[in-house]
């Protein structure tokens, strides 16, 4: 799980071009949006693409999105539960 | 009263150099590529705008041009926000980022368009980034022309000012080629002469726009 969380942190930094953010600056349990990294709606769309492109996963029910993308940890848990690869 | 409009400040970015009112304020080696040049300049001037790194090259160049100009002469504080117009032009528009978007959708087996890339596939976005940063709510427009046209910029700028649609202009030419390898920017501030605090202004005329722009050409010969 820790390995997946670390991988996700690196992918988020790269995909969202968070140039001034270091790997250790990201608290895995902190909210990704508004607080924490302060991500916006375009970032949310990028995370959806990341999930599909890198892990082959789609969130079918949009209501789940808020829970899945709450934090790096919740995203990692979703991937761990649903990734068949 | 007939207003007398002046170019109060200008910035030129090209050949990996930045000239603010004719004075060199930043330079990099010639072999530094545009993305690194822009990033290094951003860091050098200690600008704080986290969104900068998400912008495409055209937006970064326009943003940096306006930012350094307004650091020197903050017209966003001197004028009512809806009395400042932003008028920019260029030849290649946002083709550089258009190509990146195209690359992400051309392969139907690997079809992952990036929302963060897609949002920059309009040249007007650079106007928006400048306006958001400085809370400018006046007229803004982007013109596509094959080459720098001082006549076009001057005639539109004067029309906006004479019709009292704006009291000050951020006006110029911001260009990044398709490959993202060749770039240049000439942006200036235009104001009423009685609003200007320095003595280095020149009349807002086609001749002077062209003369200032020609400094970019001179930089090519001296690099």
What does this structure look like?
The complex is a heterodimer of chains A (85) and B (223). Chain A is mainly alpha-helical. Helix content of chain A is 55%, strand content 0%. Chain A has four helices and no strands. Chain A starts with a helix and ends with a helix. By secondary structure, chain B is an alpha+beta fold. Chain B has one domain (2-222): Thiolase/Chalcone synthase (Peroxisomal Thiolase, Chain A, domain 1, 3-Layer(aba) Sandwich), CATH 3.40.47.10. Chain B has helices at 34-44, 57-72, 75-78, 95-105, 115-118, 124-134, 150-162, 206-222; strands at residues 5-14, 17-20, 23-27, 84-90, 140-144, 168-176, 183-192, 202-203. In chain B, strands 1, 2, 3, 4, 5, 6, 7 and 8 form an eight-stranded mixed sheet that branches. In chain B, β6 and β7 (183-192) form a beta hairpin. In chain B, α1 (34-44) packs parallel to α2 (57-72) and α7 (150-162) runs antiparallel to α8 (206-222). In chain B, 39% of the residues are buried. The model of chain B has no long low-confidence stretch (mean pLDDT 94). Chain A binds chain B through residues 15-20, 38, 42-43, 45-46, 49, 52-53, and chain B through 39, 50, 53-54, 112-116, 119.
């Amino acid at each position: 799980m820790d390995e997946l969380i670390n991988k996700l942190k690196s992918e988020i930094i790269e995909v969202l071009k968070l140039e001034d953010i270091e790997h250790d600056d990201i608290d895995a349990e902190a909210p990704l949006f508004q607080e924490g990294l302060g991500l916006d709606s375009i970032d949310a769309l990028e995370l959806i693409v990341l999930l599909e492109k890198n892990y082959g996963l789609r969130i079918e029910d949009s209501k789940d999105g808020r829970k899945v993308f709450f934090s790096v940890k919740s995203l990692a848990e979703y991937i761990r539960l649903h990734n068949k690869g | 009263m007939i207003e007398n409009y002046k170019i109060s400040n200008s910035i030129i970015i090209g050949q990996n150099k930045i000239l603010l009112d004719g004075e060199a304020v930043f330079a990099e080696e010639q072999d530094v590529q545009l993305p690194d040049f822009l990033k290094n300049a951003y860091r050098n001037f200690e600008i704080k705008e986290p969104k900068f790194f998400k912008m495409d090259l055209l937006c970064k160049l326009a943003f940096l041009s306006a930012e350094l100009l307004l650091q020197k002469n903050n017209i966003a504080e001197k004028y009512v926000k809806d009395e400042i117009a932003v008028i920019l032009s260029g030849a290649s528009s946002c083709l550089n980022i258009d190509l990146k978007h195209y690359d992400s959708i051309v392969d139907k087996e690997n079809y992952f368009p990036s929302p963060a890339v897609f949002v920059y596939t309009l040249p007007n976005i650079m106007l928006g980034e400048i306006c958001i940063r400085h809370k400018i709510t006046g007229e803004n427009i982007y013109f596509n022309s094959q080459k720098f046209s001082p006549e076009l910029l001057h005639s539109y700028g004067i029309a906006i000012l004479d019709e009292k649609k704006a009291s000050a202009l951020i006006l110029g030419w911001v260009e990044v080629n398709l490959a993202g390898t060749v770039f240049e920017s000439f942006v200036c501030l235009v104001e009423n002469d009685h609003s200007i605090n320095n003595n280095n202004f020149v009349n807002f005329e086609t001749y002077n726009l062209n003369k200032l722009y020609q400094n970019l050409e001179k930089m090519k010969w001296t690099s």
